[in-house]
Structure formats: C-alpha cells, structure tokens
Design a protein that fits this description.
8 helices; binds protoporphyrin IX containing FE; mainly alpha; about 240 residues; globular
C-alpha cells in the first residue's frame, strides 16, 4: 500500500512551502527586475519609448508583482498553520524569533507593495496614458514615481535579511539557545526601532527632496545597505541567543 505522505499534515505544510517559494520567486524576482534592470534602463530610454513601455510593459509586470506578493504572504501563513512544531512556546524559541523577524519584513514589504508602490504606479501609468493620447501630463506623476521608487528600494533592502531569516529558521536557528523574556524584549526593541526608522525614511524621503537618503539613492547603495542591515541583525542574534 502506498503511504501517501503528501496528504499528511507535513505533506500539506510542504505543499504550502512549495507554493510559497513559487510565489516568493515571482514577487522578489520582479522586485529585483524593477530595481536593478528597469529603473536604470528607463533613464536611457527616449521619452516616447518610455511612455510606451510604461503603458504596455509595466502594468503586466506590476500585476504579477502584486499578486505574487499576496500569494507569498498567504502561503507563508499557510505554512504557519500546517507546520507541526508551532506549539504555544514556539515564538519564544530562536527559530520562532527568526521566522517572526522574517515575517515582520514580509508584512512591511507587502504593505509597501499594495499601499505605496501600486497606488503611485497607477498615477505614473495614468500619466503615460494621458501623454500618449495628447492630453496634459499629470502634475503629480513625478512625485508619485519617486514615492514608489523609495518604497521599492526599501523593499529590496529588507528582502536581503528577509530571505536569510526565512532559511535560518529551520536550518540554523534550532542550534541557538532559548533565552529569558527580557533578552527577547531587547532583541525586539532593537529590531523594531531600526526597521521603523528605515521604513519611515522610505515614506518621508520623497517629500524631503533630492538626495533622498544614501541607502535608497542608488540601487548599488541599497544592496550594500541590505547586507549591512543583515550583518547588524545576525550580530544582534548571536549576542542575544
Ligand atoms: C509575510 C510574508 C511571509 C510569511 C508569513 C512567510 C512565512 C514563512 C514560514 C512560516 C516559513 C517556514 C519557516 C520554517 O519553519 O522553516 C517560511 C519559509 C521560507 N520563506 Fe517565507 N514568509 C513570508 C515572506 C517570504 C518572502 C517574501 C520570501 C521570498 C522569496 C520567502 C521565502 C521563504 C523561503 C525561501 C523559506 C525557506 C523554507 C525552508 O528553509 O525550507 N518568504 N516563510
């Protein structure tokens, strides 16, 4: 008799994990395409070609991008629901703290996609449609583009530690020790303060004017900042757990 492990609770968790990887690759792959390929390339496009690309290419890419983000979050929550190790004390363990850190970044990034990037990109697309049909350009199009870019670069920064903590959770964190509540509190205060500052800069930088902020001014800086932030977080983790 075939055991059909795939229909056990661990099997469902594995299927959710698979869906999570597929959706995550779609989301983060497009995020990197926007940041490392499209945005730098658009600078060199003629105005007409750029308008054409914004009308015909960008909406398709943004559709896969935002629904990829939605599916990544939903499948991530499904893993949480199916996985057997998630007992009451799980979120106090090093693994639980690790996945919570990854999820914190994931939820902020999701909010940036649906709450900042997509609404502002809709203005950029509407502007391209207006100019293509000979109507007047939208006055807020440039600032909308900047707001979307700041949130998008910030998501790129967060994606670097996010992916580390996603993998770290099962593959290294179980080797760390459980610690007291006050040590966990210290960890969370540092992580939350730093993360809120980075996100606040993303939301406020566009109104401050150029240069926006070193870490989201150029995609090269964003990559460096992502690894620096990862280094800070892993040193903190090592110090506490
Ligand atoms: C709010 C959003 C997210 C939630 C709720 C979430 C949730 C989870 C959970 C519960 C796990 C299982 C951890 C474990 O016990 O091993 C996991 C693993 C993972 N997630 Fe996420 N995740 C989110 C975002 C992302 C994103 C954006 C990516 C990017 C591609 C991603 C990629 C991964 C990877 C690669 C693993 C590793 C699985 C393994 O080592 O077997 N996740 N995630």
């Amino acid at each position: 008799m075939v055991a059909l492990e795939i229909f056990t609770q661990s099997g469902w968790a594995m299927l959710a994990r698979w869906g999570h990887f597929l959706a995550g690759v779609t989301w983060i792959g497009l995020l990197y395409y926007f940041n490392f390929v499209q945005t730098p390339a658009f600078v060199d496009f003629d105005a007409g070609a750029r308008t054409d690309a914004i009308r015909k290419l960008v909406p398709r890419a943004l559709w896969w991008f935002r629904y990829g983000a939605l599916l990544t979050v939903l499948t991530g929550l499904l893993i949480l629901g199916f996985q057997e190790q998630f007992k009451a004390d799980y979120f106090k363990s090093a693994s639980g703290i690790s996945i919570s850190t990854g999820i914190l970044f994931g939820l902020i990034m999701f909010a940036n996609v649906w709450g900042v990037i997509w609404p502002n990109q809709k203005i950029v697309i509407a502007n391209a449609e207006a100019t293509a049909s000979g109507r007047e350009a939208l006055p807020n199009a440039a600032s909308a583009g900047r707001k979307a870019a700041c949130a998008s670069r910030t998501n790129t920064l967060f994606s670097i530690p996010l992916l580390f903590f996603m993998g770290f959770t099962s593959h290294l964190a179980p080797l760390y020790h459980d610690v007291t509540g006050s040590k966990r509190a210290t960890y969370w205060i540092v992580v939350l303060v730093l993360t809120i500052i980075i996100e606040a800069i993303a939301l406020m930088a566009p109104s401050v004017g150029k240069p926006q902020a070193w870490h989201i001014d150029k995609h090269r800086n964003t990559i460096i900042a992502g690894f620096v932030y990862w280094a800070v977080l892993i040193l903190l983790f090592e110090a506490i757990f």
